[in-house]
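ok so i was messing around last nite and threw this chain in just to see what happens. nothing serious, just curious
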Amino acid sequence: MKPFLEFFPIILFFVAYKLYDIYIATAVVIVATIVQVLTYWFMYRKVETMQWITLGLILVMGGATLYLQDEQFIKWKLSIIEWLFGSAFLASQFIGNKTFIERMMGANLELPALIWKRLNLSWALFFIGVGFLNLYVMSNYSTDDWVSFKTFGVPGLMLVFIAVQMAFLYKHVPTTETKK
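result:
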């Protein structure tokens, strides 16, 4: 259920865009994100900080898109979110005892501190890079292309990046034989 909830707003955004236009799709993604956050609240009795930030950004940027009838605001939201993720990962390189990625994965994986830092830095650079790639796509391609990039390109890039990370981690994960 949780993976469906994660993609619920973007799927509805894409469908609404294909059936109507960017403005209807923006209204749909605003409502869908509100429903998503409320559903998380009722199911888990908590909402993650980044979900609140995403909701706030979708309300502000989506609201500006609808009010001003300017699609650039909703397009900028993706870059802002990616840069916030990247900044959070980057800041954790210098703040606290553990990097952001180690806090997320450390209970399930033992790695040397240097590897955690490299892994964390690669995630920071990935998110920041996707934010800039979004700017490039939104500035140089049609809205149709941007919607496809947002819906399929960004998740595709994420899957490829995760596969590369898994290959990198495979070299550093202790095997059962080395633990004896």
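not much to say yet. Residues 1-68 form one domain.
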